[in-house]
Design a protein that fits this description.
about 650 residues; alpha/beta; Rossmann fold; 7-stranded mixed beta sheet; 5-stranded parallel beta sheet; globular
């Protein structure tokens, strides 16, 4: 199918070109930008719905403000595809999320129009405030604009930043993109008119004059006058909360109507008052593309699709994903134990808990984008005898580390962490890779750590965690499909701290933690074909470590290799620490820990990423041969 005709968009090389367009031309440009976004994502897959919802807003902001001199920060960043098209990256937009291509999120290294990288939510106001403070200290006069969605406003960090910005009276413009109608009343002509009026310089000036006048009143009268003015505006526009945080509130306005957006943004740009401003715009996720508008998730994340029909490309049927296996395993446990509850942080579908919620609606809790709250709330549940499972991506659990340490581990509370997306994750890249949980949880006392080698093991670990009732536990599993193994109806609890040996050998021992076990088996076959006998073991547990297994492998083999889908300081470090204290690395045993490299790995197919990381079968073979002095390793693995 031919790409859409985009005569105005074809003339745009940088956002400065938009500033020569009339309002009517900008409307046409927005339609062309929407068509280009749809066509590009149909070929690459990605976050379509959020990007379609901000097309007009993207055009308006770039047309009114002097980007990149004025700093524009997109919260999360998955809605920034139209922004990328307008900022000199259109020629690469069909490489989105592909190896060597554009990131699916904003990224400082990619463009000067991306002043702050973001793939985790709710950071934009804090970053923007920091930029505004730096601007003021340097004596600059640039604008700072942060665009944040209503979902991201569920995170406490956003309110921490707003509270600080209000107290600092920093010149900062926050645009609240409300695409779920979760905050705003219906927008219309009156709301648009009021927004235009209250954002104008005369109104701002009169407001400041009245504020100065009120300060001359006796203190009780001053407070009464100030609150009367704020609450009167709040009654009309719904902005009382933001006013109380120290922001000047404007809105809500229709985020798809350039006749409303452009004059209001110009007024805010030209306002002379040094104060933070919040502009509330209402948009529709998936706007302008019927299949997205009709979809329940508004095409939040899509595979490649047919533009005309909206039908998404489907992979050939295969084994169930690890996420689905976890979901089914947790449901099986919950059917047998009514104390089991689940918690997620605005990711019910991503974590598989949407199915759990259908089965047990009163036992499934979505707390919004509030990972810190999720963990401490689970700790509170555990104190009352419930069995909480916090289902969370490894990369998002990082956001709640203090709560894991102080509220869970320190009190030895039996909160269970189901860590999805462990290891490398493909198209989402480094921001979503679960690289660090083994290291950051492995150092905590009282923590049981498990990693599933396959989908059956995952079921057993769900059952194991359900039985651990005296301390916290965590188990990790990757994105993607399992191996296609036959699944039991319900998992069987494992013996805590006990690994398993799958293959006995004499020369080389390979100890796997997680789903590299299949690659270990391939490596063992290849080494056996070269006359090198291998033992292959699955550790299952990083804590408590199966010390008996580790010691036996070290004593009875010339080479011991550990392998994990995690950073330095993880499972291999725990094994080395134990062996060193036992004196088992003082002699002939050659120990080689294989971990993710000390670098961030960009988006690519997972197999390619693991090849870049040096953690595939050929790298294990090369490591074993090099340890034996047989040959230089052809591909050097990352070393601790």
């Amino acid at each position: 199918m031919a790409p859409p005709a985009t005569p105005l968009l074809d003339r745009v090389r940088t956002p400065a070109d938009l500033r020569n367009y009339s309002g009517e031309q900008l409307k046409q440009l927005a339609e062309e930008l929407r068509a280009e976004t749809i066509d590009a994502v149909s070929q690459t897959g990605g976050h379509l719905g959020a990007s379609l919802g901000v097309v007009e807003l993207t055009v308006a902001v770039h047309a009114v403000f002097d980007t990149p001199r004025d700093r524009l920060i997109w919260d999360v960043g998955h809605q920034a595809y139209p922004h990328k098209i307008l900022t000199g990256r259109r020629d690469r937009i069909r490489t989105l999320r592909q190896e060597g291509g554009l990131s699916g999120f904003t990224r400082r290294a990619e463009s000067e129009y991306d002043p702050f990288g973001a793939a985790h939510s709710s950071t934009s106001i804090s970053a923007g405030l920091g930029m505004a403070m730096a601007r003021d200290l340097k004596g600059d006069d640039r604008q700072v604009i942060a665009i944040i969605g209503d979902g991201s406003m569920s995170a406490g960090m956003a309110y921490e930043a707003m509270n600080n910005a209000g107290a600092a009276k920093a010149r900062l413009i926050v645009i609240l993109n409300d695409n779920d109608m979760s905050i705003a009343p219906p927008v219309g002509a009156m709301s648009a008119y009021l927004s235009k009026v209250v954002s104008s310089r005369p109104f701002l000036s009169v407001r400041e004059m009245m504020a100065k006048l009120a300060r001359r009143f006796p203190r009780p009268l001053e407070r009464t006058a100030r609150r009367a003015e704020e609450f009167a505006r709040g009654l009309l526009t719904g902005g009382t909360l933001f006013e109380e945080l120290g922001f000047y509130y404007v809105g809500p306005i229709d985020g798809h109507d350039l006749d409303h957006l452009l004059p209001v943004l110009r007024n805010l740009r030209d306002a002379e008052d040094a104060l933070p401003i919040l502009l509330h715009v209402v948009t529709q996720k998936g706007k302008g593309y019927a299949p997205a508008e009709a979809s329940a998730d508004k095409y939040h994340g899509v595979q490649k699709f047919n533009v005309i029909t909206g039908e998404q490309a489907k992979a050939p049927p295969g084994p169930p994903s690890y996420t689905k296996v976890f979901s089914n395993a947790l449901i099986a446990e919950a059917e047998a134990d009514e104390r089991i509850v689940s918690i997620n942080a605005a990711m019910p579908a991503g974590t598989g808990l949407d199915a759990f919620a259908k089965k047990f609606p009163k036992r499934c809790f979505d707390v919004g984008i509030a990972e810190q709250h999720a963990v401490t709330c689970a700790a509170g549940m555990a104190t009352e005898g419930l069995k909480p499972f916090v289902a969370i991506y490894s990369t998002f659990l990082q956001r709640a580390y203090d709560q894991v340490v102080h509220d869970v581990a320190l009190q030895s509370l039996p909160v269970r962490f189901a860590m999805d997306r462990a290891g490398l994750v493909g198209a989402d890249g480094a921001t979503h890779a679960g690289s660090f949980d083994i290291a950051y949880l492995g150092c905590l006392p009282n923590m049981v750590l498990m990693a599933a080698a396959d989908e059956v093991e995952l079921m057993h670990m769900v059952a194991t965690a359900a039985q651990i009732d005296d301390r916290p536990s965590a188990f990790r599993y990757p994105r993607g499909e399992g191996l296609g193994l036959t699944l039991p109806a319900r998992g069987t609890p494992l013996e805590i701290g006990r690994g398993r040996v799958l293959r006995e050998g004499t020369a080389i021992a390979i100890l796997s933690y997680g789903t590299r076990l299949a690659e270990c088996q391939k490596a063992a076959d290849e080494l056996a074909a070269q006359g090198l006998s291998c033992t292959v073991a699955d550790a299952r547990f990083a804590k408590p470590l199966d010390t008996g297994l580790v010691e036996r492998l070290a004593k009875n083999h010339e080479v011991l290799i550990t392998i994990e889908e995690g950073s330095v300081g993880g499972f291999g470090g725990l094994v080395a620490h134990h062996l060193l204290w036992k004196g088992l690395l003082d002699g002939q045993t050659k120990f080689r820990p294989m971990v993710l490299p000390d670098s961030f790995i960009d988006h690519a197919a997972p197999k390619v990423q693991y090849d870049q990381a040096g953690l595939n079968a050929r790298h294990i073979v090369a490591t074993a041969r090099a340890a034996l002095g047989m040959a230089e390793a052809k591909a050097q693995p990352a070393r601790a």
